[in-house]
Design a protein that fits this description.
- By secondary structure, the chain is an alpha+beta fold.
- Strand 2 and strand 3 form a beta hairpin.
- Helix 1 crosses helix 2 and helix 1 packs antiparallel against helix 4.
- The radius of gyration is 16 Å and the shape is globular.
Amino acid sequence: MRKIKIAPGEYYHIYNRGMNKQELFLDESDYARFIFCLLYFQSEITFNNLGYYISYFKKNKKFNLSPKTISRIILERSVELINFTLMPNHFHATVLEVDENGIAVYMQRVLNSYTKYFNAKYNKTGHLFQGPYQAVHVEDDKQLLHLSAYIHKNCMEIKSIGNSGWTRYFWSSYQDYVKENRWPELLKSNIILEQFNNENEYVDFVKTSLAKELK
């Protein structure tokens, strides 16, 4: 049983890693597939032929969904995605629970869908993730801001990125905060950014925040 109760109107740090620290994302298609799930599974709309959207993304760096479908997701979603980062063997996200059991249903869909895809693609069986997803309740606004910085700087753990490459890391929402939001209303960055006068203030905040675990 989960140690904390997840309640509507509250924010949570959601994370998980690969079983035995195995890598979850082996190529660009894998990263794109997981981001698709994070973005578009916020409501219970089902999708057919996800491979089409992933192929389109690899060529155009965006998913070719109709405005009507996106509007429906926004209208019917049971969670809101605030920020995220994908690492080779784990992921982090901040998620707002909108409806009762919203996060539980959301994460079940995301993790199950991605596991089935990954196992089929790489001819594997069994569990991909190290148990159920982990959730930490965000207690106050200060924690929410520092969690955002932690998530966006998490890729500093990748040796090839170092102390400056994290600002250009493609598989996180940092670029959506400091440049153009690639996913408009599907990524609710405003809860963080509206607390700063401009994007540069947010950049300075993230750069000076400690890159440490917030658990």
